[in-house]
Amino acid sequence: MLQFIQRYRFAGLVLDANLLLLLVVGRLDRTLIGQAKRVRQFTGEDFDLLINILSRFQRVLVTPHILTEVSNLLTSEQAHIREGARTILCGQMPLLDERFTSAQSLCQLPAFSRLGITDVAIETEGRNYCLVLTTDLDLYLHLESLGVPALNFNHVRTGAWQLPGA
Q1: How would you classify the pairing of strands 96-98 and 13-15?
Q2: What pLDDT sits at residue 16?
Q3: CATH classification of 2-157, choosing from 3.40.640.10, 3.40.50.1010, 3.30.565.10, 3.40.718.10?
C-alpha cells in the first residue's frame, strides 16, 4: 500500500461515494458511525484509517456525480444527520478537487450500462493517473482489469494491506 501512496500522493486520491459519506458523517459526529443508516457497515476505526490515508495525499478528488450521490444517500438519514452532514460536505468543498467530465462523454464508456455514471466518472479520473479508493468490489475489480490504480478500502481495513504508522 505504501508504494501506492508514494506513487500517487501528489497526483491525488479519488474517493468513492461511500468513503466520502463516511468522511462527512464522521466529521459531523464520530459516534454516528456504525449507527447511521448509510455508514452502518463502518466503525470509528475505519474513520480513523480513512483520515490517516487522506492525510498522506496532497489532493482529494471528487466528481459532481460522487457529490450528488453522497447528497442523495443522506436523504434516507434522520433530519439532524442529513442536514448536519450536508453542512459538513459543503465545508469540505474548499479541500476537495472537483473534476468534471460531461455525462454525454461518460455515457459513451463501455462500463456505463453495467456500473453507472458515478463509477465511470471515477474510472475516468483514475485513468488520469490518480489513485482510486473504493469500497465497491465491482468497481474495484473493473478498475483492476483496466490497469487503473485502485485500492479496495475493505482490504486495508481488514489488514490485508498494511499502512505504516496506522
Answers
A1: unpaired
A2: 97
A3: 3.40.50.1010
Pairing assessment for the beta strands 150-152 and 131-134 based on DSSP bridges: parallel
| All residues at 6 or more sequence positions from 68 whose CB lies less than 8 Å from its CB, including other chains | 118
Residue percentage of the chain with pLDDT more than 70? 95
User: Going edge to edge, which strands form the sheet with 150-152?
Assistant: 96-98, 60-62, 13-15, 131-134, 150-152
CB atoms under 10 Å from CB of 81, counted, come to 20
Give me the pLDDT at residue 92, please: 95
Q: Could you tell me the three cell numbers for 36?
A: 447511521
Compare 161 and 59 and report the one with higher pLDDT: 59
pLDDT band at 159 (very low <50, low <70, confident <90, very high): confident
Strands 131-134, 13-15: pairing kind:
parallel
How far does the chain reach from its first CA to its final CA, in angstroms? 12
